[in-house]
Target: Suppressor of fused-like domain-containing protein
Amino acid sequence: MGALTYPSLDFSAERILRCYAEKAIHPDPRFLLIGYESDEMMPLHLFYDFDAPARDDALVTERYANGGELHDRFETLSEMLAWGALLKFRVNTMPQRCEGMLSCDDPDLLSQLDPVMFSLGFTKPITTGPRCGLYERNDAVLICERTPREELLGNQAFTLGGRDAGVLRKLLGRLTTESSLEAEVDEWTPALG
Model:
């Protein structure tokens, strides 16, 4: 996966086939191993969950090798990879970042967010469902997500990166004045003085 490699996750076909051949993972018609987690403290492997609703893909969930509680990650693998790429290569390389919560009365928060982001010159690198928003332009990147299978309640955690605090504040201001969205920032990195 090149620069997009996850430090402790192995998505290679060789590793996946070896896990099944060595019976480290037992075949299950509901779950297909797609990422082997080598962290021994929290070996939550990535699986496709074929029982979950799908949009041209399958839901990505984490669990222990042979069962246990599910920790849903993303509605699709493409959303997970695109979200991770934007976080790693764009948001985390920006000089100023903030994290918080977007909320509105509409359970489909992205239907409120999309028009404003497009009017501000943002594009989406991939098409996403209602639980994952990915937006970018030269000077700023916004990613937001909500856990799959949770009821859509009109709120999503967000991370926003930009060239400076002014760009981020202006963007958050436009989001809240040009839509029914509310934005609550929990943390600025670096901290604002």
Notes: The chain has two domains: 2-74, 78-186.
